[in-house]
TrEMBL record:
InterPro entries: SAM-dependent_MTases_sf, SAM_dep_MeTrfase_SAV2177_type. This is SAM-dependent methyltransferase. The lineage of its organism: Bacteria, Bacillati, Actinomycetota, Actinomycetes, Pseudonocardiales. It comes from the Bacteria. The keyword Calcium does not apply. One of its GO terms (biological process) is methylation. Gene3D superfamilies: Vaccinia Virus protein VP39. GO terms for molecular function: methyltransferase activity. Keywords: Methyltransferase, Transferase. The keyword Transport does not apply.
Length: 248
């Protein structure tokens, strides 16, 4: 679905049908996806500018338009990226896309089981958890339902990385009046992924004791917009809180 919104070609008819239904009551959804992807790019570049050269992308889906390894390796070809997802089609497509890239890989695992993810041999093969890591949880948290212990899950990943690591999060919210959260939630029940929209204070909890960098927790378009770039007329339509935080 996300790939379709971004104009990619790694999607299926069922994905396109659900997106079209969502657009009937939330026509801004394509804009929301594009702004989120733009945030991801800026967050990865920010991490690179702060010396990060290895990334753990949780719940990555298919590495589609403007993916992490392309952004990072364009700056430094030695940058390493490990994607993690549990959806079979996403994993299969990702492995094809990443074939021949020695510094990027896809781990087929459930991110809600951080103990298993962090003990997987592929982690140690590709990443050095004694050195700062760029943790990416972009459009992930709202797929983690309350009974899956999102606070404990995020805490486990935060605890696994050393001081100087950076964590980027975007998360759907219905704090913003323009977002039809209940309709969106109901529509997503038709897919394999239910969602849990969260308030600003709930999203802040996912960062734990990591220290938010300026401008703090804001919306995707308002987080460090590129100089000279044109800001959207109404950031309330972003639908996603966004922030990056550093481990002390």
């Amino acid at each position: 679905m996300y790939d379709y919104l971004l104009g990619g070609n790694h999607n299926f008819e069922v994905d396109r049908e659900i997106v079209e239904r969502i657009m009937e009551f939330q026509p801004e959804v394509k804009r929301i996806a594009i702004l989120n992807r733009s945030f991801l790019r800026r967050a990865v570049l920010f991490m690179l500018n702060n010396g990060i050269r290895q990334f753990l992308d949780l719940g990555s889906g298919i590495p589609t338009v403007g993916n992490v390894h392309e952004i990072a390796q364009a700056v430094d070809p030695s940058s390493r990226v490990l994607y993690v997802d549990n959806e079979y089609v996403a994993v299969a497509h990702s492995q094809l896309i990443l074939e021949g890239n020695e510094n990027a890989a896809m781990l087929h695992a459930d991110v809600t089981l951080p103990g298993l993810v962090l003990q997987d041999p592929l982690i140690n093969e590709l990443l050095d958890l004694d050195q700062p890591v760029g943790l990416l949880a972009v459009t992930l948290g709202h797929y983690i339902l309350d009974d899956q212990d999102p606070l404990g899950m995020f805490a486990a990943y935060r605890d696994a990385v050393p001081s100087g690591s950076l964590l980027a999060i975007t998360h759907l919210t219905d704090d913003l009046e323009a977002i039809k959260g209940e309709q969106l939630r109901q529509q997503m029940t038709r897919t394999q992924n239910n969602i849990r929209l969260r308030s600003r204070s709930e999203v802040l909890e996912l960062f734990g004791d990591f220290e938010l960098v300026e401008p703090g927790l804001t919306t995707t378009s308002a987080w460090r917009p590129e100089r000279g770039g044109q800001l959207p007329d109404d950031a309330a339509l972003d639908a996603l809180y966004a922030g990056v935080a550093r481990k002390p």
